[in-house]
């Protein structure tokens, strides 16, 4: 699977990673057994680096150093730093906006930055409808599709005529996406920190960092760019522990348009190779 697979793995369908060659997990270095205990110095909280004049605005989300706790395995519940009260209030207002939204559609630009593959830019449109329905249509030349009817999730790669099919309940979609479809709540799964919007080239809005309370294998943190008036998310950036970033910019958003149920039905074209992880 090519570069598109990484984009799906890190943002849309993490379990597509099952179709790629596995990598051995890094093991923590052994610790000396007889060292006297010393009080650990408390590190200063990470701060986003200021963007340089020549840097694009979308690189800012990847500049904050990771702060994952060594030894925490994916799926293991951890005690995450408490959310700042102001940041938690922002998250609640974002959730309130989407609680009032039955369906959502927009155009998007996706920019993926990966240390191995470089940068990839793609465009398309997206629709969500509660509960659990979504559809991502990628523009030409790819023609790729990701669609869920609320029960089954398909990820179709048109160039390779290959589709991954799985139950939505088993897809491990990030809560930062499932809450858009009404099947997850941000405040149940993340802690929050408000970042300096000026440093992130978003001075008229709000920039909010989300860190999962349960470590995830495919991403370390998410950054939301939020409209200050409506609390609608207009950009998301998903960053993994290696600093790879997958960003979506949404434009022309429309809500509560009563999207047809047929929008979220899809049948693989004849001759498609179907993978069921």
Question: Which characteristics define this entry?
Answer:
outer membrane lipoprotein receptor (LolB), chain A; disordered N terminus; single chain; mainly beta; 12 strands; 31% strand
Textual characterization of the structure:
- By secondary structure, the chain is mostly beta strands.
- The protein has a single domain (about 5-10, about 80-265), classed as Lipoprotein localisation LolA/LolB/LppX (outer membrane lipoprotein receptor (LolB), chain A), CATH 2.50.20.10.
- Helix content is about 10%, strand content about 30%.
- The protein has helices spanning about 5-10, 85-100, 175-180, 185-190; strands at about 105-115, 120-130, 135-140, 145-150, 150-155, 160-165, 190-195, 205-210, 220-225, 235-240, 245-255, 275.
- Strands 7-8-9-10-11-1-2-3-4-5-6-12 form a twelve-stranded mixed β-sheet.
- The longest helix has 15 residues, at about 85-100.
- It starts with a helix and ends with a strand.
- The relative contact order is 0.22.
- Mean pLDDT is about 75; it is low at about 1-80.
Please render the helix and strand layout as text.
Layout: H1 3-12, H2 85-99, E1 103-114, E2 118-129, E3 133-138, E4 145-149, E5 152-157, E6 162-167, H3 175-178, H4 186-189, E7 190-195, E8 206-212, E9 221-226, E10 233-239, E11 245-255, E12 273-275
Parallel strand pairs: 6-12
Antiparallel strand pairs: 1-2, 1-11, 2-3, 3-4, 4-5, 5-6, 7-8, 8-9, 9-10, 10-11
